[in-house]
TrEMBL record:
It comes from Leptospira wolbachii serovar Codice str. CDC. L-glutamate binds at residues 125, 417-419, 441, 470-471, 493. The active site is at 399 (nucleophile). The keyword Membrane does not apply. This is Glutathione hydrolase proenzyme. Keywords: Acyltransferase, Glutathione biosynthesis, Hydrolase, Transferase, Zymogen. GO terms for molecular function: glutathione hydrolase activity; leukotriene C4 gamma-glutamyl transferase activity. Its EC number is 2.3.2.2, 3.4.19.13.
Length: 586
């Protein structure tokens, strides 16, 4: 057994290196960076990692959270694909490579900008199944049944990833599905070496996995370890069926039949009808002028609108000389902008088909002025209301983002997720697919914090067919001449909008370069709990003693930013040095 395992492991390494040879830029970047098979560095440090996490080119750049996902994108680009083909190939590949973060039983958003053709916002996020109603998660006395939205078969929403990727690719891509799916299929069937972050996720969730899942993520009845081979044969078969049947596979194909059989033991919580009724939602991106650029972001139920409110509020405060100067002033402006944006999110956020979200108002100058007046009163009078502290729920490492930009300004910004680590930690037997636990993104009851400590209102309550509120905020920024300048997004739960804010702040306002902007220690506030979270490296610049009106926690910001920018005739990509990915390109 051991011998077979080792032999196949080295065979895979050999195959992998051979396949890299055929992709010159991958080979170059690969050679200059630590290999994916080595234990990857975690977060500390920064500048010495630049060679690994930054990459520049002239034609196209993709930044993702796994070298092989970036490679999948470049593989189809070399075959004559466009940015949408790159998006589709990299998305399927990352589902195989980061199954603890995202997958075909998950959901996501994509903002697509093709200057010669148009711009779109695609919502392929999970929807509450027909049986998904709030009372399903509550005891008779109205209190929440612990963990029911978090783990197990009832925590999953109806997935949209496959329908989303296929619809976008069908509308704008050039290559056949066989080419798009080839890299993902190869990674699932031939396997790849388990890296540190994935090994951690497997060990952490091992006890909760159902038998089908333990079979895939175990060797000899124990969790697979770092450096060992992960083969996902059932997943490969599902990919083959998608290759053959395209979107029909997820409306009435064998895969959804297997899902329906699985749910026959769980009150038929998700049914074939739920899959048949699933619709990808296509709309215009949310557009706003901010910081000398035009931002195209994802509309609600994403948090794009709150990200933009944050940016407007910051500008308004910066224009007033009543705010303190220096580091303290900076922290106040950023924190108070975040507090308002997350308050709005908690009070108003939800599926726009079920609740009214006053997007134009939240993006208006009048609103930024009005809210800044309130903050100014507090700052000038020095009468800060006492902090309202609530327990902080732990964050987890999952979800993923891919940013792609080519020399003609064509861009895709996509964030995809199964929500928590390995979602519901249940595999549908025979499919290789792991259920999401995105029902937890609803507010199960007003004021009850979710996995990310976020609270919500009735606007985000559970109702059949509804889409849960999301922090995912994929965005694209155009410069003042209308050319695509930045493609950006992040995983990281509630820290997603603030990581994008921090990066854009360092890049556009402070004029740091992209790598520094992504790696720079971050400032985070999410309304509840009423605390500022600062990366430990900036403790000396922002000691608690100078911020007596705030409760400060020096805790590492978890979100990982993936961004590509255009600077002159060069494209520069950065995959967050906290992660496992690399940007690649030509
Ligand atoms: O859509 C959301 O807001 C969450 N499902 C995102 C989860 C996430 O980013 C987890 N990452 N650490």
């Amino acid at each position: 057994m051991n011998f077979i395992f080792r032999t196949s492991y080295w065979l895979v390494l050999l195959l992998f290196f051979n396949s890299c040879e055929s992709i010159p830029f991958f080979k170059d970047s690969f050679n200059s960076k630590p290999t994916v098979f080595a234990t990857l560095p975690q977060i500390e440090g920064a500048s010495d990692k630049r060679t690994r996490y930054e990459f520049s080119g002239k034609e196209i750049i993709i930044a993702s959270d796994h070298p092989l996902a970036s490679q999948a994108g470049m593989e189809v680009w070399k075959q004559g694909g466009n940015v949408v083909d790159v998006f589709a190939a990299a998305s399927f590949a990352i589902s195989v490579l980061r199954p603890h973060s995202t997958g075909l039983f998950g959901g996501g958003f994509a903002v697509v900008h093709l200057p010669a053709k148009g711009k779109w916002a695609y919502d392929f996020r999970e929807r509450s199944p027909k049986k998904g109603v709030a009372s399903f998660y509550l005891k008779e006395d109205g209190t929440v049944i612990p963990e029911k939205t978090l783990k197990g078969p009832y925590s999953a929403g109806v997935p949209g990833t496959v329908q989303g990727i296929l619809q976008i690719q069908k509308q704008h891509g050039k290559l056949p599905l066989s080419s798009i799916l080839a890299p993902a299929l190869r990674y699932a069937r031939v396997g790849f070496s388990v890296y540190g972050d994935l090994a951690f996720a497997i060990t952490k969730t091992w006890q909760q996995m159902n038998p089908a899942m333990q079979k895939v993520f175990g060797i000899d009845n124990r969790a697979i370890r770092e450096g060992e081979l992960l083969v996902q044969e059932d997943f490969a078969k599902t990919l083959e069926r998608i290759m053959e049947n395209a979107e029909k596979e997820f409306s009435d194909g064998e895969t959804v039949q297997l899902v329906s059989r699985y749910y026959s033991e769980y009150q038929e919580f998700i049914t074939l009808e739920d899959f048949k009724n699933y619709q990808v939602k296509v709309s215009d991106p949310l557009v706003s002028s901010v910081w000398g650029h035009t931002i195209l972001s994802m509309p609600p139920p994403s948090s794009g609108v709150h990200l933009v409110t944050m940016m407007h509020l910051y500008s308004e405060m910066q224009n007033r000389d009543t705010f303190p100067k220096g580091d303290v002033g900076e922290v106040i402006r950023i924190t108070e902008a975040m507090r308002v944006a997350f308050r709005d999110r908690a009070e108003l956020g939800g599926d726009p088909l079920y609740t009214n979200i006053p997007v134009s108002k939240l993006l208006s100058q009048a609103y930024a002025k009005e809210e800044t007046n309130e903050i100014e009163r507090k700052v000038v009078s020095g009468s800060w209301p006492p902090s309202q502290e609530e327990p902080k729920k732990p964050e987890s490492y999952n979800t993923t983002h891919i940013s792609i930009l080519d020399k003609d300004g064509n861009a895709v910004s996509t964030t995809q997720s199964v929500n928590g680590i390995f979602g519901a930690v249940q595999m549908v037997p025979g499919t290789g697919l792991i259920l999401n636990n995105t029902m937890d993104d609803f507010a199960v009851a007003p004021g009850v914090p979710n996995l990310y400590g976020l609270v919500g209102s009735k606007a985000n309550s559970i109702e059949p067919g509804k889409t849960p509120l999301s922090s995912m905020s994929p965005s694209i920024l155009l410069d003042s001449t209308g050319k695509t300048k930045i493609v950006i997004g992040a995983p990281g739960g509630s820290q997603i909008p603030t990581s994008i804010f921090n990066t854009l702040y360092r890049y556009l306002i402070q004029k740091r370069d992209l790598y520094e902007s992504v790696s720079y220690p971050r400032i985070h506030h999410q309304f509840r709990p009423d605390q500022i979270f600062l990366d430990p490296e900036i403790k000396d610049s922002y000691p608690q003693s100078e911020l007596p009106f705030y409760q400060v926690q020096y805790i590492r910001h978890r979100a990982k930013v993936f961004a590509v920018t255009r600077e002159g005739d060069r494209l520069i990509g950065v995959s967050d040095p906290k992660g496992e990915g690399v940007p690649l390109g030509f």
